[in-house]
Amino acid sequence: PFLRLLEAQLQDQRREHEEEVEALKNEVDAMKEELEKQQQAFLQTLQLSPETQVEFGLQQEITRLTNENLDLKELLEKLEKNEKKLKKQLKIYMKKVQDFEASQATVPAERRRHERNMQVAVQRKEKDFQGMLEYYKEDEPLLIRNLIT
To answer: Which residues form a coiled coil (predicted)?
Structure first.
């Protein structure tokens, strides 16, 4: 039974490998065809007059830029869709925040007073230190210059 299982796995791997090789061969053939087309176009371009070569080059560049422009438009559309989605999510979250704040407004008055007292205490502690700065006398010119800039 174990050997049969290994044999089946080996056959599966061989089949997958053969499929991969076939796919790669097809890809190589497609690339060869594309290369031949490009070589023929290049040879035809060399046989053209200089003015026609320039015109042909311009046409190719226009085609390339058009394709690039279409890709950029596609990307822009995706980004705009994403922006709309994010704006919708933001509205939903803003609504949730408003609902939460509204629910907090209905909290009993005692609890709100206690929370306010805690906030005031924190604010006072922060205010005790506002505007104070410790420095060495010799650092004063550097400190003044940094404050000005």
So the answer is: 3-103
DSSP character at residue 138: G
Do 144 and 135 meet the contact criterion of CB atoms below 8 Å apart?
no
Instruction: Determine the Cα–Cα distance for residues 66 and 143; give it in Å rounded to an integer.
Output: 58
Cα–Cα nearest to 45, from 59, 56, 34: 56
- What predicted TM-score, i.e. pTM, was given to this entire model? 0.38
For residues 48 and 56, the answer to whether their CB atoms sit within 8 Å is: yes
- What are the structure tokens assigned to 137, written together? 């006398």
CA distances from 102 to 5, 88, 99, 113 (A): 66, 21, 5, 17
Distances (CA, A) of 31 to 63, 68, 139: 20, 21, 71
What's the angle, vertex CA 20, arms to CA 16 and CA 24, rounded to 5? Answer: 170
Question: Which amino acid is it at 25?
Answer: K
Q: In whole angstroms, how far apart are CA 83 and each of 96, 97, 105?
A: 20, 21, 33
- What is the tens place of the pLDDT at every residue in 116-131? 555 544 444 444 555 6
